[in-house]
Design brief:
Blueprint: E1 4-17, E2 20-33, E3 37-41, H1 48-55, E4 63-68, E5 71-72, H2 78-88, E6 89-92, H3 104-114, H4 120-130, H5 146-157, E7 164-168, H6 176-193, E8 196-200, H7 204-207, E9 212-217, E10 220-223
Helix pairs in contact: 3-4, 3-5, 4-5, 5-6
């Protein structure tokens, strides 16, 4: 086994809904080693996206612990959490989350700018080249197809070379041919960068491309944990 990049222990997430507690995650444990590609699958409502959001530090669990790259994140203050997210985690969403008023190049350069990196536009151009979109650098998101927007989002997620890349239904809004291309791209860039990929998907074919499939049902790990 390589070095552990992610250790999730007994994770519980409850939310209040309609005056009662609803348990979304019910004691989830998961280990992911560096450079591994893990697909998290399960029916709608099984807690997949909630799990990913907790790993990304976008939300805090009701109970349990998450150790990301050696740091226990569940009790970090907002500033340290934001720094950790910026430096260690790349996130690819289903709906791209690009900034509409920025060009493709500027969207990719954004994390580099926030982190105060030199040669930002140069580096952003290299990243766009890596996802095959250097000729669309000056286009705005509205001028790009869904598949192109997702490629820009992937370039942005990888801009700071984060050790962990999280992707939440990254092909959810794309047709299957485009979706397949996006997954190929994610997997190959991940190998190139030596990063770890945790991917949430309900697409079985897609999940099969990962090295390991973790299945969730009713907030529990039922396979592959």
């Amino acid at each position: 086994m390589g070095q552990m990049i992610l250790q999730v222990r007994d994770l519980v997430m409850r939310l209040r809904s309609g005056g009662r507690d609803v348990t979304i995650l019910d004691g989830v444990s998961l280990d992911v080693t560096a450079r591994e590609t893990v697909a998290v699958t399960g029916p709608s409502g099984s807690g997949k996206s909630t799990l990913l959001g907790l790993i990304a530090g976008l939300d805090r669990p009701t109970a349990g612990s998450i150790v990301l790259d050696g740091v226990e994140i569940t009790n970090l203050d907002e500033n340290r959490l934001a720094r950790l997210r910026r430096d260690r985690v790349g996130f690819v969403f289903q709906s791209y989350h690009l900034i509409p008023t920025l060009t493709a190049l500027e969207n990719v350069a954004m994390p580099l700018e926030l982190a105060g990196r030199p040669r930002r536009l140069e580096r952003a151009r290299e990243l766009l080249d890596a996802v095959g979109l250097v000729d669309r650098a000056d286009h705005y998101p509205s001028q790009l197809s869904g598949g192109e927007q997702q490629r820009v989002a992937i370039a942005r997620a990888l801009a700071l070379r984060p050790p962990l890349v999280l992707a939440d239904e990254p092909t959810g809004n794309l047709d299957s041919a485009t979706g397949a291309q996006i997954i190929e791209l994610l997997l190959s860039l991940n190998r190139e960068h030596g990063s770890t990929l945790v991917l949430v998907t309900h697409d079985e074919a897609l999940a099969g491309r990962g090295q390991r499939v973790v299945a969730l049902r009713d907030g529990r790990v039922v396979a592959g944990g």
